[in-house]
Amino acid sequence: MEKKRRNSLEWISYFTTNSQQHRVDWNLKPTITSRELQPILQSLQAWQLGETSEGKNLIRASTIHAKKIGDLNYLNAVELFIKEEQKHGNNLGRYLDSINEKRIKRDWGDSLFRKVRYFNTSMELWTLAVITVESTAQIFYQCLKDASDCALLKQICTDILIDEAPHIQFQQERLEIIFSEKSFWQKQVSFFFYHFFFFSTSLVVWFAHRKLFKAGNVNFIKYFVKMESKYQKTIGRLYPFHIPSLARIIYHFLFLNRTVFKRVN
Ligand SMILES: [Fe+2]
Ligand SMILES: [Fe+2]
């Protein structure tokens, strides 16, 4: 069912209420085994670093955007959104501390993403990047949760997963607003770029974190089918026709035998 679009004040109220929810019991002791930890540790450390960004560049892009559309409340909503991301980084860091593993300071994926973020002052590119990365994050945290029996780690992942769905909605609504102001031809070009960006970034995330995805029982085909469905619910909704990826076509012919090409409203 389609969710109602929230205005900036409603988002501020949502983020404020959500920040008061404490879903992790820090009295629990970590019980992860070294066998469980081995395939996930590097990715856990990289993701922890990625979640701790100060968000200065996003604030910069949001300030320009908020002034342009005359909605300064949007800036406050973005600040609360960044705070929630930092909570994820803090919780993952606290978990790494509790199992005596270090918090890393550098990671190639993170450094690359930080450089791209530094030069990016466009709200459109920000929302596109966040929707894409948050979609991979939903699969990532579900796999992290499934890769171990540790109750503390499961609670941390559940808490993050509860936060992530509204994060995507928050950015999706912004992209919809920006996209709707484009001309017919601008829409064609942008949509092609969104599609390319979403799936090429998904591919990079798969290669960087495939060990963790596999530990959570998600193989390459499953990963892409999940990403495809996330794409349809977000960026794909902006445009009436959906182009299925090769992974989806193979998956449907092999397992589901359903119509592959379908119209999306
Ligand atoms: Fe996050
Ligand atoms: Fe998020």
Summarize the SSE layout with pairings.
Elements lengths: L7 H12 L14 H4 L3 H11 L4 H14 L3 H26 L9 H12 L3 H24 L4 H30 L3 H32 L4 H14 L12 H11 L9
One fe (ii) ion (FE2) binds next to helix 5.
Tell me what you see in this structure.
The protein is an all-alpha fold and 265 residues long. It has one domain: Ferritin. 72% of the residues lie in helices and 0% in strands. It is built from 11 helices and no strands. It has helices at residues 8-19, 34-37, 41-51, 56-69, 73-98, 108-119, 123-146, 151-180, 184-215, 220-233, 246-256. α4 (56-69) packs antiparallel against α5. The longest helix has 32 residues, at 184-215. One fe (ii) ion binds next to α5.
Top CATH class: Mainly Alpha
What is the number of strand segments?
Answer: 0
CATH topology: Ferritin
Low-confidence region ranges: 259-265
Euclidean distance between termini CA atoms: 12 Å
Helix content class: over 70%
Small ligands present: fe (ii) ion
User: What summary fits the major beta sheet?
Assistant: none
Describe the structure concisely.
Helices cover 72% and strands 0% of the residues. By secondary structure, the chain is mostly helical. The chain has a single domain (28-256), classed as Up-down Bundle (Ferritin), CATH 1.20.1260.
Can you give keywords for this protein?
Ferritin; binds fe (ii) ion; 265 residues; disordered C terminus; mainly alpha; 11 helices
